[in-house]
Amino acid sequence: MSVASFVAAMTEAGMKKFERDIEPDHTRAELKAQRADLLDELNQARERIERLEDIAYKGERQDILNHLEENPGAEYHQILSKLQQTVGGRLTDNLDFLQLESRIQSNESGQYFLVEDDEDEES
Q1: Class of the domain covering 24-122
Q2: Nearest of 83, 61, 54, 10 to residue 2 by alpha carbon
Q3: Interatomic CA distance for residues 23 and 47, integer angstroms
């Protein structure tokens, strides 16, 4: 805020006697230290969120893989009903991810299968 704006605001507020000098609440060094602390906290929170998301998604994907191992040829709605409590609305995202990783495949009728590893076929 410029000095002119400050004087105008004080006059509008009905103050006739006021000091033009304003004392800051914190020094520049204190503000820089606070900023650095807040950035550290933010980075730690982001790392924690990333770790938790990795754990959650890996667990959900493993549940899908386990279900398909037990029920080859399971259809989308069967997987959804089986995993509804653990995966819920993210089933489509996880199925898409597993297909992109070539760990599962689907056919035109909506059935999902595990992709066999080359090592498993040679054994």
Answers
A1: mainly alpha
A2: 10
A3: 38
